[in-house]
Amino acid sequence: MDLQISNYNNHFQIKGTLNKLNLNTFNSYFSNIFDKLDDILINIESVDSIDRAGVMALAKLHNESITKSKKLSIIGLGCKELYDHFKTQESSTVAA
Questions:
Q1: Which residues of 16-40 are buried (b: 16+ CB within 10 A; e: fewer)?
Q2: Which secondary-structure segment (H or E) carries 74?
Q3: Which of 6, 36, 83, 92 would you call most buried, defined as having the most Cβ atoms within 10 angstroms of its Cβ?
Q4: How far apart are CA 92 and CA 85, in angstroms?
């Protein structure tokens, strides 16, 4: 399934596959999002699969939210790969 992104009141629903092939769609959709909004919620419950490039795109969005002091929430149990990435990042931050 291709990547589909829908939006209602700063709540973004991502469906399909987030990978290197459709990363341009994701990046253009969320380009400068924190210049327009202070608080966004991304639901990944309907993401079928995500590769390393997709995880890194979400991590980049997360870092941008921190840099700009904005709120980003990622909800849903859709992707173990994403959970593992942020869990590993959190563990390394605590250990440092």
A1: bbbbeebbeebeeebeebbeeeeeb
A2: strand 71-75
A3: 83
A4: 11
CB 87 within 8 A of CB 74: no
pLDDT in tens, 55-95: 899 999 999 999 999 999 999 876 566 666 666 665 555 44
Cα torsion for 35, 41, 42, 43, to the nearest 10°?
Answer: -170
Task: Output the pTM of the full model.
Answer: 0.78
Apex 48 CA angle, 44 and 53, nearest 5: 75
Cβ neighbour number for residue 59 with a 10 Å cutoff: 14
- Placement of tokens 């390393």 in the chain: 52
Rounded Cα distance between 14 and 42, Å, is 7
